Every structure is written in C-alpha cells, then in structure tokens.
Amino acid sequence: MAATIVNPLREGLRLSRTPEPSTIVIFGGSGDLVQRKLMPALYNLALQRLLPGSFSVVGAARQPLTDDQFREELHRAVGEHSRTKPINEEVWKSFADHVFFIATPDERGYDQLSRRLDQLDTELGTNANRLFYLATPPGAYEPIVKAIGAHGLRGRTGWARIVVEKPFGHDRESARALTELIHQVFREDEVFRIDHYLGKETVQNILVMRFANGIFEPLWNRQYVDHVQITVAETIGVEERAGYYEQAGAMRDIVQNHLLQLLALVAMEPPAAFDDKAVRDEKVKVLRALRAIADGDVARSAVRGQYASGFIEGAAVHGYREEPGIAPASRTETYVALRSFVDNWRWEGTPFYMRTGKRLPKRSTEIAIQFRVAPHQLFSREASEGLDPNALVLRIQPDEGVSLKFGAKVPVQGIRIRSVNMDFDYGASFMVDAPDAYETLILDALRGDATLFTRRDEVDQQWAFVDPIIAAWAASPGPPALYEAGTWGPAEAEALIERDGREWRKA
Ligand SMILES: NC(=O)c1ccc[n+]([C@@H]2O[C@H](COP(=O)([O-])OP(=O)(O)OC[C@H]3O[C@@H](n4cnc5c(N)ncnc54)[C@H](OP(=O)(O)O)[C@@H]3O)[C@@H](O)[C@H]2O)c1
C-alpha cells in the first residue's frame, strides 16, 4: 500500500495557521473600518479557508440592525473593498450564515449579547473562545470594556482576547489610563493593540531581511551606516477625517505609532526567538534608547509643517485650513520631520531622520539605510561625480521591494562611475497578491500570536518620545511652517538635515 507523503514543514505551517473554533465580536460593527477593512479581511480569510470550521462573527453597535440587514450591508462593502474580486457567492453565503448582529444601546442589549454568544457556542461549537474587537471611536471604549466585564461576555470557559484599534490614547497619560481600564477585564497577554503597519508583508520582511540573511547584519551598525531615513509620504489631504485629524495631527496619526515601529524594527538587536516576547523585548529596548527631543532641542531637531494650496498630480488642491471641517486658524501639523539618535552600542552617533506628511508629491513609505562612503577614494573626483553613497532601501508601499544602490562603471573608455540600483520587486518575484495587513493581524489575534501587536511598554515609550515635542509646539507662539501642496515639505525640514551635511532622498 502506498504511504501518504506528508511534507512536515507544510503540514506544520497549515496547522499552526489554523485558529481554534471561536467567535469574533466586533463593537462598532456598522462602522467604516468594519466595512472597508475588517469584513473584507474576514471574507478573504474565509476564501483561503484560513478560518476555523466553527466560527461566527457578531457585530454590535447602538443602532439596531437585523442579521439580514447587517449581512446585506457587509455584502455590499465586501464587494467594493475586497482585494479579490468579484465576490465568490458560494463562499460568501456560507460565511454570511455565521454573521449576526446585536444592538447594544444599553445594559439590556449587553445581556442579550451575552445570551446570544452562549447560544452560538452551543449551536456552532465555538467553545466560548471569544475575540473582542473595539472598532468604535475611542470614547466608547470605557463603557464597552466595563460591559464585557459586568455582563460576563468573556464566557466561563475558553479564551478571551481584545483587539484595540489605533489611536491608543491621546498622550502617555491617557494611554496608561486606557491600559489600566482594559486590565480590569483582560490580562496584558490578552490585549492586542493594532498598528496595522506591522501586518504589512514588507514590514515583516524587514525582520526576514535582517535576520534570515548573513550579509546585512555585519554592516548594520554605526561603523558602516552613515544614517537612516524613514519616510511615510502621502499625497492625500485630510479628506473626511477632519474631526479626528484636528485632534491628532501627523505626530499622533503617524509618528507615534507607524514611524516609531518602523524605526524599532530597523534598529533592534536580533531577538532570541521569533515570538511575541522576544521580538517586543528588543523593540522596546530601542524605543527606550531613542534620544528624547526636548525643550531647547525641539527647534533644532523637530519641524512641523502644514500644507497650503498647491497641485497634486496636476490638479489644484486646497490648503489644509480651507478643507471642510478645519478651523481657519488651525495649528495642526500635517507634516513632521525629526532627527534623533538611538543611544546604544550599535547606533551611537548615527542619526535617524524621520519624516511624514500629507499632500507630498508621491505616496511612498520607505526606509533607507545610507552607508558610509568608501574609506579611500581610488578614482578621481571627476570620474566619481555620478556616484552617490551606497543605500539599501526597503520600500514598504507602494511597489513593495528592496533596492541596493551602488556604483558601476559606465561602459565608455576610461573610468566613469555612476550609481545604479539592484532591485527586488515583491510583486514580480512572487507573482501572488500579498494578504492585506488586516488579514494577517486578525488571523494572528485568533491564533493568540501577539508578535505583530504593540505591547503596553512599547506604546508607553512611543508616547514618552512624542509628548514633549507636542508640548513644546503647543507652547510656542508660531504656527507650523507652511509648505505648498505637491512639494516635499517646508524649507525648515531641508535645513534640519542640511545642517548635518546630508539631504533627504527623493523617495
Ligand atoms: N476607518 C478607518 O479606516 C480606520 C483606520 C484606522 C483606525 N480606525 C479606528 O477604528 C475605530 C472606528 O473607526 P470608524 O472609522 O469605523 O468609525 P465610524 O465609522 O464612526 O463607526 C463607529 C462605529 O462604532 C459604533 N459605536 C459608537 N459608539 C458605540 C458604543 N458605545 N457601543 C457600541 N458601538 C458604538 C457606531 O455605531 P452606533 O452609532 O450605532 O453605535 C459605528 O458602528 C476608531 O477608533 C478609528 O480611530 C479607523
């Protein structure tokens, strides 16, 4: 009899990726995030057969919807926002049969939710394993978390976890208070704070690049790296998010979370294992070593800007203060540039330049490791005119990939050197669509793997870094420096890096 050949690696992979029977309870079930991100992600997981056999989704919000109304809304939303099109109606139907809605406007609503969850456990065999997802405005977190505790929503058996959307707090103090609140009902290892950047394939690839290869790590330090530049550039303006953005600004919206997480991944030491504790222990060490930009240093090492009117891809666009819902004298920053250092053995003296902005000329998130020039210039200055320093660029979005810039001889008589790029393109190399970050993160949360979620001490250090800068800006009399939409930010940002004899990359 022929034996079945099982590839142990694949088998292990499949088994380890399949979560246990469970229910996901989404507070804010009728909101925008659910329609644009969470449901398309869950549907795509169903399509890839990555959801457990016994599974249900329960949406909750204050305004009532019937199960059928909820399913219809989601069907429309998934049709519009799914990365795979068109909807596979057969998969949708069997998925949607396990989707329900309960209104929770008051205590009675939570009681009803509790009963419904118990009932679904019995009917579907979901074993009282529950993933709670807070997809409401942050103001609703407190009553919801308290209700989860008071109404016994965790269930008597099974596991319980909670996913919390960004922003996690408004400053260090409120983030600590939010953690304390959540800890009244969940242990820290049950808390999954989302930074969706960490779910992106190319962000995870930073770790793979660094730690699965032998060639980069020996160079990854102050001896060989001149400086690091991290850019998160957007072409879009504030769009419909005026209410949120006026309170947040670029510092809270991008720097406090995404940008500092990218910095931590690039600068961290090799973890002892690829697990949630080891990886997050190393990231938090970087965040602790990140030199504060405080008081007197803010003017030199931090720049804030705000976009004025201009042109994006040839089309005229309004300035920030002319956008709907924005105060005409708003001082909210739409651009931030920073210069800091990671004060540890590996990076002593190596500047990390970070910038983010809206209405910049190009949508681009990248990390550039710029290496020192060769120690001795063998070739004449004239021959080397076209030579830039070596740079390894990790492109996070769009056009995900990695490129290495180095000097090559121009094929003419005599020596003439020009910089060329060796390029790795994710899409072209693997010929598959990368999963959406939310697919990766929801699956990890269902499996209980918190590696790609931020721990309380990371969030705390991130706020500790940005709070003093925000405070200094709030105390300074001047508004942010204006920059024309469609340019790379205010002149002050150019000056910040040029003072060090360096320049921003044209990302
Ligand atoms: N939209 C995005 O792309 C995006 C991206 C990143 C992060 N986020 C974060 O995700 C969260 C949700 O954003 P959103 O854009 O989806 O907001 P939204 O469209 O305003 O939806 C909010 C949802 O929360 C529900 N809700 C409000 N108060 C509630 C309460 N006390 N109990 C239960 N449900 C309640 C609302 O329904 P009822 O009014 O009927 O209760 C609605 O379903 C926010 O924290 C946001 O910062 C959103």
Measured distance between first and last alpha carbons: 60 Å
Overall 3D geometry?
A: globular
Which CATH architecture of the largest domain is right? 2-Layer Sandwich
CATH topology grouping of the largest domain: Dihydrodipicolinate Reductase, domain 2
Total of helices: 15
Strand content: 15-25%
Class of secondary structure makeup: alpha/beta
Total beta strands: 16
> How many structural units, i.e. domains?
2
Bound molecules: NADP nicotinamide-adenine-dinucleotide phosphate
- What CATH first level of the largest domain would be assigned? Alpha Beta
Low-pLDDT parts are: 1-15
Q: What share of the residues lie within helices?
A: 25-40%
- Report Rg: 25 Å
Major sheet details: 10 strands, mixed
Query: Please, what is the average pLDDT?
Result: 94
Going by CATH, the homologous superfamily of the largest domain would be Dihydrodipicolinate Reductase, domain 2
Report on this structure.
This protein has 507 residues and is of the alpha/beta class. The chain folds into 2 domains: 8-165, Rossmann fold; 198-371 and 454-498, Dihydrodipicolinate Reductase, domain 2 (2-Layer Sandwich), CATH 3.30.360.10. It is 37% helix and 21% strand. The chain contains 15 helices and 16 strands. Strands 7, 8, 9, 10, 11, 12, 13, 14, 15 and 16 form a 10-stranded mixed beta sheet that branches. A 6-stranded parallel beta sheet has the order 3-2-1-4-5-6. Strand 14 (401-409) and strand 15 (417-425) form a beta hairpin. It starts with 7 loop residues before the first helix and ends in a 9-residue tail after the last helix. The structure holds NADP nicotinamide-adenine-dinucleotide phosphate (NAP). Residues 27-33, 36, 60-63, 104, 135-138, 140, 143-144, 165-166 line the site of NADP nicotinamide-adenine-dinucleotide phosphate.
